[in-house]
Every structure is written in C-alpha cells, then in structure tokens.
Amino acid sequence: xxxxxxxxxxxxxxxxxxxxxxxxxxxxxxxxxxxxxxxxxxxxxxxxxxxxxxxxxxxxxxxxxxxxxxxxxxxxxxxxxxxxxxxxxxxxxxxxxxxxxxxxxxxxxxxxxxxxxxxxxxxxxxxxxxxxxxxxxxxxxxxxxxxxxxxxxxxxxxxxxxxxxxxxxxxxxxxxxxxxxxxxxxxxxxxxxxxxxxxxxxxxxxxxxxxxxxxxxxxxxxxxxxxxxxxxxxxxxxxxxxxxxxxxxxxxxxxxxxxxxxxxxxxxxxxxxxxxxxxxxxxxxxxxxxxxxxxxxxxxxxxxxxxxxxxxxxxxxxxxxxxxxxxxxxxxxxxxxxxxxxxxxxxxxxxxxxxxxxxxxxxxxxxxxxxxxxxxxxxxxxxxxxx
Length: 387
Ligand code: NAD
Ligand code: USQ
Prior knowledge:
Elements: E1 2-6, H1 13-22, E2 26-31, H2 34-42, H3 53-64, E3 68-72, H4 78-88, E4 92-95, H5 102-105, H6 109-133, E5 138-144, E6 159-164, E7 167-172, H7 180-199, E8 202-208, E9 210-212, H8 238-248, E10 252-255, E11 261-266, H9 267-279, E12 287-292, E13 295-298, H10 299-309, E14 316-319, H11 337-341, H12 350-363
Helix pairs in contact: 1-9, 4-6, 6-7, 8-10, 8-12
C-alpha cells in the first residue's frame, strides 16, 4: 500500500513510519515541526536526543535500502494538504498530526484556541482532500480514550445501542472529555463520521489510551532512528514520567488521590495496531471505531508498579490535582476490535520497565528537573506559564 503518515516526525508517527516501511509499504511522512517548536517555547527537549527528520530518513535508507518520502508543511494550509495527497496518491492516510498535550491546551486562551484550530481545521482539510481527490482513500485517525471521560456505564467501541421510550437506535457513544485538547478529538470524530455519511469515505477512528515506552523493533536498530521521550509536565505522559522520576531519585508525582483509572498501551503495540488498521480497511461509508488500549490501571497502581521494580527506593507524592478529574469512578472499556484483527498485546511488564530505566539512565543528565513540576492549572483560565 501507499501510506501517507501525517505527523511523521512525532513520538508515534516516526516509529509507525518505520514499522510500515519495514512491512513493505511505500511510505511518505508529512510534518510542520510544530512539536519541535513547543520544545523551544517551553525550553525543554526530548530526554533521548532525536535527529532531524531528514537525517532519520537517510539513516533508514542507509540501513535498509528503503526510501521514505518527506513533505514539510502545515495541514491547516488546505492547498498544501491537497497538493501532497494529489502528488503522493496514498491508499491510506494515517493522521497523527495534532497538538496532543492536554496541559498545553489548558495554559490560556491562546493555547486552547491554537489547539482546536490546528486539530479541527487540519482534519477538515484532510477530509476535503480525500473527498475531492480520491474518496476511496482510507483515513486512519488517531483519537483518544479520554474523549469518553469517565461515564458511569461501560465504554463501548465508539457506538452505543440505545432504547429510549420504546424506540431503538445506534448512536455515537456520548463524550465528556477533560480538556480542550481532548475536546478537539471529539469535534474531529463528529466531522469524520459526518464525512463518511455524506461522501461515503472510509475512516477508522482509533481511540488510543496513554502510550508508554520508547523503543520499537525498528527504532532500536540505530541511535539515529530514536523517537522522542518526554519527561516535562506538559508533554511527558504519566508512566514515562514515573520511570524518569524514579531514575532521578525524585518522588513520583501522583495527582490527587490516584484513583483515576486510565487505559494504557505500549508503543510497540501502537505501531502494530496502526499496521492492522491500515491492512484491514474500513468499508466505504463506514465510520469504524476501535478503542486502542491494552489494559486499565489507576494512577496509584502505575506509581506502585514503577516503585516496586525500581532498584532504588522511591517515594510516591500526592500533589493537589492541577486538573479537574473524577476520582473513584467506574471504568470498564470494551477493546476487542484490534485483538480480533490480530493484536497480541504486550502488557506492562518488569522487563519493559527495566529497559526504560536503562534508556533513562543513559540520558538522565539532560533533564531539567524544574520542568517536571506541573504549572498548568485547569481551574484558572490563564495559568502561569512557568517555563
Ligand atoms: P507528537 O506531538 O509527538 O506528534 C505529532 C506530530 O504532528 C508532531 O511531529 C507535530 O509537529 C505534527 N503536527 C502537529 N500539527 C501539525 C500540523 N498542523 N501540520 C503538520 N504537522 C503537524 O504526538 P504523539 O505523541 O506522536 O501523538 C500522535 C497522535 O496520537 C496525536 O494525534 C495524539 O493525540 C494521539 N495520541 C497520543 C497518545 C500518547 O500517549 N502520545 C495517546 C493517545 C493518542
Ligand atoms: N498524572 C499524574 N501525574 C503525572 C502526570 C499525570 O497523576 O505526573 C495523571 C493525570 O492527572 C491523568 C493521567 O495521569 O489522570 C494521565 O495524564 P497524562 O499526562 O499521562 O495523559 P493525558 O493528559 O491523558 O494525555 C495523554 C497524551 C494524549 C492522549 C491521552 C490518551 O498526551 O495525547 O490523547 O494520553 S487518554 O488519556 O486515553 O485520553
């Protein structure tokens, strides 16, 4: 297949590009380097150093003989988006290219508006490019488990059968997310479902849980192929942060009482899920949804797991929660769609955590400890930046 990967310079887009290229697909990546720009804005950097996109692509070609085409530009530019889709002519478009940090979207009005415009407008331009150039293209779009929030009923895969006053219907599962970032994913999902209905395009919405880990079989081949590994309180995700805190001898920062439960997935399963979704496309007109997570843990369980595996003694701190979140809630998620397609999940294991300790130790001197401290406060419409 010809697969265009939007956001192919990011934490997940780059390893997915390598995995699909290794699987024999003809791959192109597109990125505007916004993610590298947020690092400049905040004065932080990926813990594991990453090469430029062009150098990574050269390294992959030198090691494997496989070419990856590269487009530099912004999806909010409709002409650019159409140009790339027309020129590369993909069978599948994998869309990772959004501002993806909840805290970044909650800094202030400017960051919230930027997040929603970037994400919603970029996705609209992709939908129009598909409809105008080739409605047969399969859109594989990264969404998020957090879009559902914490309903007091089980979370189904995207759709819900309801019976109301004696009548039945199948509706999109109700959403109640916890940040303006997560809301941008809800808006995207509605726009994509509508495009499937009116234009008959095919789409898969992958509601992914929190990703942890840093290496895949392909990125581990050479340091030049490494993907990013974030530790700061804005882009660093919880399990990766707990690993890094434990290596640095810092207390693990549990927000609130830690009873919030979240769906998680290891990065090797992310790239495998993307491959399965691409190779088993949705039907024309179908808006297909998978919950892309492999297990559920509370934040306290995550912290206790890392503390147990850590060779050094680590403490667990409960910070006043800077976010507005439910605690002690019901959380039972259906996530069988990708398993039915062939996913064999890697669950959180001591071996994986130990390998992350090793990666972290190699680069621990690159950490700016003050960037670990959460400064974005959900309850204030303008949080102090603190960076
Ligand atoms: P990332 O920020 O590392 O990668 C996103 C990439 O998209 C970046 O390289 C960025 O420069 C690019 N981008 C952003 N806006 C763009 C635009 N307008 N035009 C062109 N390129 C643009 O994020 P990630 O962690 O790799 O996440 C990828 C996707 O997966 C996101 O959509 C995110 O919401 C979703 N997701 C991530 C996680 C996670 O834990 N990392 C979990 C669930 C879902
Ligand atoms: N948390 C802590 N301590 C920390 C960091 C986070 O207790 O030091 C808690 C948060 O309060 C939250 C949970 O851990 O309850 C997850 O936070 P996170 O920053 O790891 O993840 P989140 O903000 O949910 O966002 C991440 C990705 C996002 C993706 C989402 C998947 O950044 O792109 O969409 O995970 S999901 O959570 O399923 O929506």
